[in-house]
Write a structure and sequence with these properties.
single chain, mainly beta, three-stranded mixed β-sheet
């Protein structure tokens, strides 16, 4: 097992992004609309029950950021101190 290395934040930080702070129309199919309820207390994503966003609305919700594998997402309103790493193959947007 490799030991953790101390690095400057500028070496590992690409940016800090935020979702649009709104709610899209409910949709039965489409990309995942990731919400605080999907972040577990143990630092994992629970994707067993996810909301969906329509493919037509998706571009608006990914204008600022399109979450990709290994990105860290976290909550900072309402439910605090929850975080998770985006897994490989995730296709969705942030709430």
């Amino acid at each position: 097992m490799k030991a953790w290395q101390l690095k400057n934040i500028s070496e590992v930080y690409d940016g800090f992004f935020d979702g649009p702070h709104a709610t899209p129309k409910p949709c039965d199919e489409g990309p995942i609309f990731l919400g605080i309820e999907n972040l577990t207390e143990s630092g994992l994503l629970d994707l067993s029950q996810t909301k969906k966003i329509s493919p037509e609305e998706f571009p608006r919700w990914t204008r600022r950021v399109l979450p990709k594998a290994k990105d860290i997402v976290f909550s900072y309103e309402a439910t605090l101190n929850r975080y998770a790493i985006i897994p490989n193959g995730f296709y969705g947007c942030l709430n």
